[in-house]
Write a structure and sequence with these properties.
CATH topology of chain A: Formate dehydrogenase/DMSO reductase fold
Distance between the termini of chain B: 35 Å
CATH superfamily of chain A: Formate dehydrogenase/DMSO reductase domain
Number of helices of chain A: 13
Strand order of the largest sheet of chain A: 2-1-3
Distance between the termini of chain A: 33 Å
Structural class of chain B: alpha+beta
Largest sheet of chain A: 3 strands, mixed
Largest sheet of chain B: 4 strands, mixed
CATH architecture of chain A: Up-down Bundle
CATH class of chain A: Mainly Alpha
Helix content of chain B: 10-25%
Strand content of chain B: 15-25%
Shape of chain A: globular
InterPro entries (chain B): 4Fe4S_Fe-S-bd, 4Fe4S_Fe_S_CS, ET_IronSulfur_Cluster-Binding
Order of helices and strands of chain A: EHHHHHHHHHHHHHEE
Number of strands of chain B: 10
Number of domains of chain B: 1
Strand content of chain A: under 5%
Helix content of chain A: 55-70%
Number of strands of chain A: 3
CATH topology of chain B: Alpha-Beta Plaits
Number of helices of chain B: 7
Largest interface: A-B, 45 and 54 residues
CATH class of chain B: Alpha Beta
Number of domains of chain A: 1
Strand order of the largest sheet of chain B: 8-1-10-9
Shape of chain B: globular
Radius of gyration of chain A: 22 Å
Pfam families (chain B): Fer4_11
Keywords (chain B): 4Fe-4S, Iron, Iron-sulfur, Metal-binding
GO molecular function, one term (chain B): 4 iron, 4 sulfur cluster binding
Protein name (chain B): 4Fe-4S ferredoxin
Oligomer: heterotrimer
Chains: A mainly alpha (about 350), B alpha+beta (about 210), C alpha+beta (about 325)
C-alpha cells in the first residue's frame, strides 16, 4: 500500500495521564513507606502519611478512569477477583486488582498506627469506623508484617501495571517496548521519594529524620539520574528507528513543554539541586522542597507526553482517534497529524 | 465433519466506489449522526510523484478480525472475544468502555457507543433499534448474518464486487484462492496481528 | 435509489443481450411521487382531465410499446386501492407481464431473476456474434451492401432542411466552443478554467433521498470532497486559494455566477474545474441536504441545447474563479 499516515490518539488523554501518574506515585509510596518502616527506620507517622496519601491518590486516579468509562455498571466485571482467572492477559485486570488490594492492605497496615493517634480516633465518623477495627491493632507483629508485604507486593504490581498498560499497545512504537515499564517504575519511585521528602520536610518535621531524608535524597538523585539515561535511550530509540517512532520524536523534540518542562525542570534542575544537597548540603529545606515539587510535576508531564505523543502508523488517515477529522488539503504521501491542541 | 470455517474478506481497491457505509450503518445501527461507523471508505489521492498517474482511490476499512487481536488481549472484561470461525466480537453486556481496545487496535477500528448514542439510536433507528448498552463497538463481519448463511451487509451491497467474503479453510473458495495467490495482502502484517482482511491494490492486480 | 423504474429495458453496459430494471433500495421520503404520476398530472393540466390518460398512455404505447388498455385497467384498479403512485405501478405491472411474455417466461420468474441477479439474460455476447457478426453475414444491411460510414438518417434530415454541419452524413469532429471568438488552442487566462461535473454515489441531485440521514452523514464526512469545487494545486497556488476557501465562480459565456468552496486536489486536470452535481440544494424542506451547502450546477450551466439530440451542452463554456 502506498503511503502511510501518522497520527496520535485522542482516546486516552490527560485523565489517563493523571491515572498513570497517581497510580505509579501511590503504589511506590506504599512500597517505600512499608519497607522503610519494616527495615530501615520504624516510622508510624510516615506510614500513615504515605499510605493514606496513596489511598487518596489511587481513589482520585481510579475515579478519573471510572468517570470516563462508557458503561459504569460493567466495572463490576473487573472488580471481581475472578477476572484474573478469566482475563489474565489483560493488564487492566491485574492493575485493578493490584490497586484495590493495595488500597485495602495498606490501610489495614496503617490501622494500628491510626488507632494510636488521637487526630484520627477523635475524628467524627472516621474515629467511629476505626473503633470497629480496634482488633487489628492487637494482631501479632508477624501478621502485621505479612499485611505489610501484601501491601508492598500489590504496590509493586500497581507501579508495574502503569507501565505495562502502555506497553500492551503494539501499534505504537513509543509504547510497545520494555523501556516504558522501566521508565515508569523509575519515575514512580522517584516521584514517591520526592513526595515523602515533602512530607518529611513540611508535615512531619522531625530532626531525627535527618538520616532518612538524606537517604531519600540520595536515592532520588540516583533514580533521576537513571531516568535521564532512560530518556536518552528513548531519544535514540525514537529518532533513529521505526517511522512511527520518528513521528513521535518529531512531536516530542519540537515541544518546549517536553524539553524544558519535563527534561529541564522535571529532571535536570531537581537533579542538580538534589545532587548539590547530597554532596555539599543546603542550609535550608527550601531547595529540596522545590526540587521535590519539580520532580512531582515532571512525573505528571512524563505521562502526559507519553500518552499524547504515541504515534500510530496507518495506511489511511485517522478518523476515530482525532475528534475533528479533516481531509482538507492535498494529501501527500506521509501526513503528520500533530496532537490536538486540547492539552 | 466439515472443518470450522475461518472467515476472511478480500477488498479489491480497483473497483471500490464507497457505497457500503450506508448498508453497514443500517444493518448495525451505528451512531452515524456522530460520524461513528463500523466501516469507513476513505476518499484518497494516490500516486503522482515523478509524473506517475494520479488516482482517486476509495479505501474501505473495517475491523481486520485479527488472529492475534491486540484489542482482545488488552480487554479486561473479556467483552472482546474471538469465535471459532475467526470473527472477533464485542459483548456489550460485558464491555465497560475503558477503550483499551481502541488504544491497542492498529487499524483504528473501535469507536465509542455512549449512553447518549444508545438513547439517540432509539429515535434514529426506531423500534428495530437493538442496542441497549454502551460499548466500544466495531465491525462483527455481520456475524448474525453469516451464521444464517448470508454475507456481511457491506459485501451484499457492494456494487463493484470489490468486497469478497469467504472461508480461508475452503481451498475452493475465491477468497481463499486470492489470499493464497498473494495478490491480496493484509495491512501492516509486520505488527504480527495476523489480520483477516486482505486488499488487492492497483499495482498487484493481475486480471 | 428510492424508485422502481416504470419500465424494463435492455442492459446497457454488458455486451450480452439482457433485460434489466431498477428496484427501489430505500423508501421514498415524505409525500414524494413518482415521475410518471407527476407527468400524468401535468398532462391532465395541459390536455384536460378526461383525455389526459388516454393521450399519455397512447403515446407511450406508440413510443415504448407499453399497451395502453391493460395499463389503464391496472391504473384504475391501483388508484381504487389507494396506491401512492398508481400510474408508475401500473406501468411496472404491465411492463413486467409484457416483457415476460416476450421472453417466454412468467412475470414471477422474471421478477425473481431480476431481484436476485439484477439482469435477465436472453443471449450471451458470443451467441449474438455467432448469429449476427458482420464478417460471417456479409453483405451488410446498408444500401450498398458494404460497410458504410454514412448516415442515411442524417441524409434524410438534411433533405428536410437541417443543413448545419451538425447534421453531416459522415462522422466528423467538431471543435468545441467554450469561449466567444476564441479557439480551444488559445490559452486560458490565469483565473479561467474549463468545467466538468460528475456524481456522488450517495445522492442524486435534488431528490428527496439527498435528505436521507445516513447518506447525509456520509456526505458530511466527505463534505469537503463532495461539495467543494475541485481545483488543481498548481492553479490554486497562483490564485492564492486554499482548500476550504470561499470562491466566486462566473460563467464567461452566460454570465451566471455562483459561490462555492475550493477543494484543492491533483485529481483534476489543471485546466479544469470539477464539481459534484448533487449539492447546492435550495429547498429548505430538505433540511439535511439544504444544510450541506455546496454549489448547484444549474447556477453555472446555461440553457444551451445541442441541436441534434437536444442534450445540454453542459460543459461548453469556461469559468472564472476568484476568492470571495
Amino acid at each position: 500500500m502506498e503511503g502511510m499516515f501518522y497520527s496520535t490518539q485522542n482516546v486516552w488523554t490527560w485523565w489517563i495521564a493523571i491515572y498513570l501518574f497517581l497510580g505509579g506515585l501511590g503504589g511506590a509510596l506504599v512500597v517505600i513507606s512499608c519497607l522503610t518502616h519494616m527495615y530501615i527506620k520504624p516510622h508510624k507517622q510516615l506510614v500513615i502519611w504515605a499510605n493514606l496519601s496513596s489511598f487518596v491518590m489511587l481513589s482520585v486516579g481510579s475515579l478519573m478512569l471510572f468517570l470516563h468509562l462508557l458503561d459504569h455498571l460493567a466495572i463490576i466485571h473487573v472488580l471481581n477477583p475472578m477476572v484474573l482467572v478469566n482475563k489474565p492477559d489483560a493488564w487492566i485486570s491485574w492493575g485493578t486488582q493490584f490497586i484495590v488490594w493495595m488500597m485495602v492492605w495498606s490501610i489495614v497496615y496503617s490501622l494500628p498506627y491510626m488507632l494510636e493517634t488521637k487526630f484520627w480516633t477523635k475524628m467524627p465518623v472516621v474515629g467511629t469506623i476505626l473503633g470497629l477495627f480496634a482488633w487489628v491493632g492487637n494482631l501479632p507483629q508477624s501478621i502485621h508484617n505479612i499485611i505489610g508485604w501484601l501491601a508492598i507486593i500489590n504496590g509493586i504490581g500497581t507501579v508495574l501495571y502503569t507501565g505495562l498498560l502502555l506497553q500492551s499497545f503494539p501499534a505504537v512504537a513509543l509504547w510497545h517496548n520494555p523501556g516504558v515499564p522501566l521508565l515508569f517504575i523509575v519515575s514512580a519511585f522517584s516521584t514517591a521519594m520526592a513526595f515523602l521528602l515533602l512530607v518529611l520536610y513540611l508535615a512531619i518535621r522531625q530532626d531525627e529524620d535527618h538520616e532518612l531524608r538524606v537517604f531519600y535524597e540520595r536515592t532520588d538523585v540516583i533514580l533521576i539520574g537513571i531516568e535521564l539515561l532512560i530518556i536518552f535511550v528513548f531519544f535514540h530509540f525514537t529518532t533513529y528507528g521505526l517511522e512511527s517512532a520518528r513521528h513521535t520524536a518529531a512531536i516530542l523534540w519540537d515541544d518546549m513543554g517536553w524539553i524544558v518542562g519535563f527534561i529541564g525542570f522535571g529532571l535536570i534542575v531537581p537533579f542538580l539541586i538534589e545532587f548539590r544537597g547530597v554532596t555539599k548540603g543546603w542550609n535550608s529545606a527550601a531547595p529540596v522542597v522545590l526540587a521535590a515539587v519539580l520532580v512531582l510535576s515532571g512525573g505528571y508531564l512524563l505521562r502526559h507526553y507519553f500518552t499524547y505523543a504515541g504515534s500510530y502508523e496507518r495506511p489511511y488517515p485517522a478518523v476515530n482517534s482525532i475528534r475533528q477529522h479533516s481531509q482538507a488539503g492535498p494529501v501527500t504521501k506521509v501526513v503528520a497529524v500533530m496532537p490536538s491542541t486540547e492539552r | 465433519m466439515a472443518k470450522t470455517p475461518h472467515y476472511a474478506m478480500v477488498i479489491d481497491l480497483n473497483t471500490c466506489v464507497g457505497a457500503c457505509m450506508a448498508a453497514c450503518a443500517m444493518e448495525n445501527q451505528t451512531p452515524v449522526w456522530e460520524n461513528k461507523w463500523r466501516t469507513y471508505v476513505h476518499d484518497m489521492e494516490i500516486g503522482g510523484d515523478n509524473d506517475e498517474l494520479i488516482r482517486r482511490r476509495f479505501f474501505p476499512r473495517l475491523c481486520n478480525h485479527c488472529d492475534n487481536p491486540p484489542c482482545m488481549s488488552v480487554c479486561p472484561t473479556g467483552a472482546t472475544h474471538k469465535l471459532d470461525n475467526g470473527i472477533v466480537m464485542v459483548d456489550d453486556e460485558l464491555c465497560m468502555g475503558c477503550r483499551a481496545c481502541a488504544m491497542a487496535c492498529p487499524y483504528d477500528a473501535r469507536y465509542d457507543v455512549t449512553y447518549d448514542d444508545v438513547d439517540q439510536g432509539k429515535e434514529f433507528y426506531g423500534e428495530l433499534h437493538h442496542r441497549s448498552r454502551p460499548s466500544v463497538d466495531k465491525c462483527s463481519f455481520c456475524a448474525h448474518r453469516v451464521m444464517r448463511g448470508l454475507k456481511p451487509a457491506c459485501v451484499e451491497t457492494c456494487v463493484g464486487s470489490s468486497r469478497l467474503f469467504g472461508d480461508l479453510n475452503d481451498p475452493k473458495d475465491e477468497v481463499s484462492k486470492l489470499v493464497k495467490s498473494g495478490v491480496a495482502k493484509p495491512l501492516m502484517a509486520h505488527l504480527g496481528t495476523r489480520p483477516n482482511v486482505y486488499y488487492i491494490s492497483d499495482i498487484e492486480r493481475t486480471t | 435509489m428510492e424508485r422502481d423504474e416504470p419500465t424494463f429495458y435492455g442492459n446497457g453496459v454488458n455486451q450480452d443481450l439482457a433485460v434489466t430494471t431498477r428496484y427501489a433500495a430505500i423508501e421514498p421520503m415524505y409525500d414524494s411521487e413518482e415521475i410518471p404520476d407527476v407527468l400524468l398530472k401535468l398532462t391532465e393540466i395541459i390536455s384536460g382531465k378526461e383525455e389526459a390518460f388516454d393521450k399519455l398512455a397512447g403515446m407511450m404505447e406508440g413510443l415504448a410499446g407499453l399497451p395502453a388498455a391493460p395499463t389503464k385497467a391496472a391504473w384504475e384498479r391501483l388508484k381504487a386501492e389507494g396506491e401512492k403512485s398508481p400510474f408508475t405501478k401500473a406501468c411496472r405491472e404491465v411492463g413486467l407481464i409484457e416483457t415476460a411474455k416476450r421472453l417466454h417466461t412468467t412475470p414471477e420468474n422474471l421478477d425473481k431473476t431480476l431481484r436476485e441477479k439484477g439482469v435477465y439474460h436472453e443471449e450471451s455476447m458470443h451467441e449474438l456474434l455467432e448469429q449476427y457478426a458482420v464478417p460471417h453475414k456479409l453483405p451488410t444491411t446498408t444500401a450498398s451492401g458494404r460497410i458504410e460510414f454514412f448516415s442515411t438518417l442524417f441524409d434524410m434530415l438534411r433533405s428536410q432542411g437541417f443543413t448545419t454541419p451538425h447534421f453531416s452524413v459522415l462522422a466528423r469532429p467538431f471543435a468545441a466552443e467554450c469561449r466567444e471568438n476564441k479557439t480551444m488552442d488559445q490559452a486560458l487566462d490565469e483565473d479561467e478554467f474549463y468545467f466538468t461535473y460528475g456524481k456522488v454515489p450517495t445522492v442524486s441531485y435534488g431528490s428527496t433521498n439527498s435528505n436521507n440521514p445516513v447518506l447525509a452523514a456520509i456526505n458530511t464526512w466527505k463534505k469537503d470532497i463532495y461539495t467543494g469545487v475541485w481545483l488543481h494545486p498548481d492553479r490554486a497556488e497562483k490564485l492564492g486559494i486554499q482548500s476550504g476557501d470561499k470562491i466566486r465562480l462566473k460563467n464567461t459565456l452566460s454570465g451566471q455566477e455562483a459561490d462555492g468552496h475550493a477543494y484543492v486536489t491533483r485529481k483534476v486536470r489543471s485546466d479544469t474545474l470539477f464539481l459534484h452535481s448533487a449539492f447546492g440544494v435550495e429547498n429548505p424542506q430538505l433540511t439535511r441536504s439544504y444544510a450541506m451547502g455546496g454549489t448547484a450546477t444549474n447556477h453555472l450551466i446555461p440553457h444551451n441545447v445541442e441541436p441534434v439530440v437536444a442534450g445540454f451542452r453542459s460543459q461548453e463554456f469556461t469559468i472564472r474563479i476568484a476568492k470571495a
